[in-house]
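**User:** You know discrete backbone vocabularies at least as well as I do. Would you mind producing a protein record, from residues through to fold? Write it directly below this note and I will take it from there.

**Assistant:**
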Amino acid sequence: MREPTTVVASDYSDYFQSYSVVGLLAVVGVLFVAVAFGAGRLLRPVVPTPEKLLTYECGVDPVGEGWAHTQVRYYVYAFLYVIFAVDSIFLFPWATIFAAPGYGATTLVEMFIFLGFLAVGLLYAYKKGVLTWT
């Protein structure tokens, strides 16, 4: 039979001491930001004038509504970029593991499944006409 292990109180104190340093740094960081914002609020001049309360638009007086219409396709291009950026992030580590002995067939199948999902997404975007520059 195995003897029960005893836990020494010094083990816990060393463990929590390392976390207390992290906690102290977090508190100091929050205090630093709070003091900086408080000092900025107390030291800045507060002189509201009608000119300061206007919306600034490159020195030109604002005309019309404040809403700007943006086409959705720009967001779709951004999403497509993110998809391919994630693809490249996963391909580089896969290439290093694939070269290691003992991982060949499993990692190859997993990567083809991953690339299949990306290909389906790309095919869907192509069928919807997202990839045409009009």
